[in-house]
Amino acid sequence: MRRVVITGLGLVTSVGHTAEDTWEALVHGRSGIAPISHFDASAYPVRIAGEVRDFDPSPYMDRKDIRRNDPFTHLAVAASRQALAQAQLEISAELSPEVGVCIGSGVGGLTTLHEQFEVLHAKGPTRVSPFLIPMLMINAAPGMVSQLIGARGPAWAAVSACATSGNAIGEAWETIRRGTAKVMVAGGAERAVTPLGMASFANMHALSRRNDEPERASRPFDAERDGFVMGEGAGILILEDLEFALERGATIIAELVGYGSTADAHHITEPEPGGYGLVRSMEFALHSAGLRPEEVDYINAHGTSTSLNDSTETDAIKNCFGEHAYKVAISSTKSMLGHTFGAAGAVEAAVTILTIQHNLITPTINLEHPDPACDLDYVPNEARHAEVNVALSNSMGFGGHNASLIFKRYA
């Protein structure tokens, strides 16, 4: 099997519109969670979110393409352009058939769906946009990215709720390993802080209701956590066949060495007790990487700030890693960004790679009252300098989906 390396990454999040700005905010423990600004949320029980604010897609797309695409696709295109720029990859006509795209989303064009539903009720069916379906569909993001960059290789969308972009990156890895492409643009994008999205999640009683202190609302592994916080963003990685990357003189920033994916087959929203679905996902990732649990230096946890997720993920890490579970550093990016749903796996994979690059672990902020059921090392409240050569990133999704990725310092 071919070795697969990472040569570029792009991020658009609630704390920064680039990877550099996002990383700077995260290592300083800055939260992007604030009162909702996209719409008037005063009548909603939950009025806070990790929105991508004041984002301008015009540096990445022309005006016609901006109008004809949902904001989640704008984010995907922006992060893809950033990642390609870092990779310094020029997609020639000759290379084009060897470049693929796998970008996912949990819910796709929810902004457009809400807007056009209002048009239907206010003005009637003849006024609904003919672009509704192309803007709504989840595969609009990989379709638009492949069109704009000229990628004619395999192109599709992965969809597995909050595990979506973890699976997208993992399946892109598999695509290169079997020789179907030399380069894959992979990740996820989400822009679901809309009236409909917020109402639905709030009525599930899944969200934190700390409306008066939004920056303290997402508190993974803390005994006083009361739900996750909706977030927005996009994360994209450029994956390349190692031989191709070396031939073109690319700067390699990490190697993706392991991937696991499983289903709980238990419940549509609740994780399996003991986290055994996630255990198997991590075991598959370790096996495919040829690594032992004790060789992992850091875990970027799914860490949503819900009661069931955090304790279940803790159990899963213990059940997979044994005694090493108490020695490995763990942190949750969602404590600062909120839960970016279908983008979470890719956003957190990018943060995991940056952790390896900088030997600096981003903190789990708001961890003030440790939960006895969550008794591992979650790097509370302050970033930590540590040598990180091997790191694992977990994603868990509604539907019982699990995805685990293992990144390694390239050597």
From TrEMBL:
Swiss-Prot/TrEMBL catalytic activity = a fatty acyl-[ACP] + malonyl-[ACP] + H(+) = a 3-oxoacyl-[ACP] + holo-[ACP] + CO2; (9Z)-hexadecenoyl-[ACP] + malonyl-[ACP] + H(+) = 3-oxo-(11Z)-octadecenoyl-[ACP] + holo-[ACP] + CO2
General function of this protein: Involved in the type II fatty acid elongation cycle. Catalyzes the elongation of a wide range of acyl-ACP by the addition of two carbons from malonyl-ACP to an acyl acceptor. Can efficiently catalyze the conversion of palmitoleoyl-ACP (cis-hexadec-9-enoyl-ACP) to cis-vaccenoyl-ACP (cis-octadec-11-enoyl-ACP), an essential step in the thermal regulation of fatty acid composition.
For this entry, the protein name equals 3-oxoacyl-[acyl-carrier-protein] synthase 2
Q: Where is the active site?
A: 162 (for beta-ketoacyl synthase activity)
For this protein, what is the EC number? 2.3.1.179
Can you name a GO cellular component term?
Answer: cytosol
Q: What is the lineage of its organism?
A: Bacteria, Bacillati, Chloroflexota, Ktedonobacteria, Ktedonobacterales
Where does this protein act, in terms of pathway? Lipid metabolism; fatty acid biosynthesis
- State the coiled-coil residue ranges: none
UniProt similarity note: Belongs to the thiolase-like superfamily. Beta-ketoacyl-ACP synthases family.
Keyword Nucleotidyltransferase (UniProt) = no
- Check the record and name the PANTHER family matching this protein: 3-OXOACYL-[ACYL-CARRIER-PROTEIN] SYNTHASE, MITOCHONDRIAL (PTHR11712:SF336), POLYKETIDE SYNTHASE-RELATED (PTHR11712)
- Species, as recorded: Dictyobacter arantiisoli
